[in-house]
Design brief:
Length: 268
């Protein structure tokens, strides 16, 4: 790989959702602060809506890390809960929180409510974060709505944040009672300036100094990817491989275009 060639400690452009490489644009910072505020202040459930590759999973994992470091919160992070039945989803959630399930669905719900009450008495706030929530069925979303009933006159007994692709919105539109109880946060693609800042940030985290991409190369990456962070990472990664293979130490527009030709646009 190109890490040694460019004098880096590690690869800066990997698509794995490593929270260390999450660059906070203003919108990422605002979305994170909004979600954390709702979770920590028991303001109410919230969902983050974002297109594929805009950083929602990485953002979710950063929030999980920060909340898990505080003993006041008992955090469960459910990634892509593509389960077949609502009962299976309930059992999954309860197992993750360490709550005994029952053969009876109603009794399981009762056990979960009692657990939430016990946690409140101990000064602990259970938090459920669900990534890829667009995979949830209608009945699973209705179970989430039922969780909102576990509350006092002033606080919810469980704090919930959903992280989802745009496909979730039509499902919520068909469940107006649930939709009306959820607050919304959004992530949009980056602009050209943010694209450069994000690339430089990742380069620095990986141990680099000056980003080796010239202005035309960055502009071409932005043009190709339309500011989608995951796509930016893939194109930059491929361009650096191409540059290292040719024993180059900077990346120009032609290198980016050559790298782009080696990638499958449908997989960006």
């Amino acid at each position: 790989m190109y890490a040694k060639h460019f004098g880096l400690a590690e690869l800066p452009f990997r698509i794995t959702p490593d929270p260390r490489f999450l660059w906070y644009s203003d919108q990422h910072q605002n979305a994170k602060e909004k979600i954390v505020y709702h979770v920590t202040q028991s303001v109410g459930p919230i969902y983050l809506l974002a297109d594929v590759g805009t950083g929602k999973t990485t953002l979710a994992k950063r929030i999980v890390e920060e909340l898990s470091a505080n003993p006041r919160y008992k955090v469960v992070f459910a990634f892509s809960p593509n389960l077949k039945t609502t009962n299976a989803f309930l059992r999954f959630v309860m197992d993750e929180f360490g709550v005994k399930t029952d053969r009876s669905y109603a009794k399981s719900l009762k056990n979960f409510e009692e657990f939430l009450i016990e946690q409140r008495e101990k000064g602990v706030s259970p938090v459920l974060l669900i990534d890829e929530a667009q995979n949830m069925t209608r009945d699973m979303l209705l179970l989430i709505q039922h969780f909102f009933n576990f509350s006092t006159n002033t606080d919810f007994l469980i704090q919930i944040a959903l992280f989802a692709q745009l496909d979730l919105q039509p499902k919520l539109n068909r469940l107006p009672s649930l939709k009306s109880r959820l607050n919304l946060a959004k992530l949009q693609p980056l602009d050209l300036g943010q694209t450069r800042e994000m690339m430089q940030f990742r380069w620095t985290v990986a141990g680099g100094k000056q980003l080796p991409f010239d202005d035309e190369a960055v502009a071409e990456i932005y043009k190709i990817t339309q500011g989608n962070p995951r796509a930016i990472v893939k194109v930059a990664h491929e361009a650096l491989i191409r540059s290292a293979v040719n024993n180059g130490h900077h990346v120009d527009k032609d290198t980016v275009l050559t790298a782009w030709g080696d990638l499958d646009p449908e997989k960006l």
